[in-house]
Amino acid sequence: MRELPVQLATKLYGAAELIADQGLDNTKIDDIAEASGVPKATLYYYFTGKEEILAFLLKDLLTAIAGDVAVAVNAEGPASERLAGVVRAQLGVMLRNPAPCRALVGDLGRATRLPELAAALSAAFYEPVEKLLREGAEDGSLRRAEDPMSEAVMIFGTVTIAGLMEAIMGAHREMDAIANGVARLLLDGLAPRTTGAAGA
Hints:
Helix content: over 70%
Number of strands: 0
Number of helices: 10
Strand content: under 5%
Radius of gyration: 19 Å
Distance between the termini: 66 Å
CATH superfamily of the domain at 54-188: Tetracycline Repressor, domain 2
CATH class of the domain at 54-188: Mainly Alpha
Largest sheet: none
Oligomer: single chain
Shape: elongated
């Protein structure tokens, strides 16, 4: 795939809503050209087909997530607080870009088979969160993970599903409320809280 000019990349987001509504299989290049305002010939100059267009939209989303996650990971404070910041960062990007998120839901199987997306996802989220989990074990704010990379993948999945559900339903709740709920689940788990010794 050739490198896209910024103006063209911005226009392509006009097609994200279309792909989200119709699914990639039911969307033609002509439809994407009409929705984005980019001529069909230009699309074929930069992309081999509509699968590459979807990959571009999702990779662009991951790039935005990577930037905000990096800020959260490298912030001051214990790793547990920074992990909560990572949750807010990812959810914030997803809720600001609901159309690509909805397109991801419709073509999740296809998206996960794209090697360039797998590499982008690892760099955007898995690797920085794995590092954060190791730092949390060192500063005592998080338990020591048996397999930090696997836990980073599970954290991404948890946050992603929460964000996708809000993107699909229209984000009826405030982003902070969603992020706080997910962070509590990740940090506290589902075990009942202990309030002290019995009878105290």
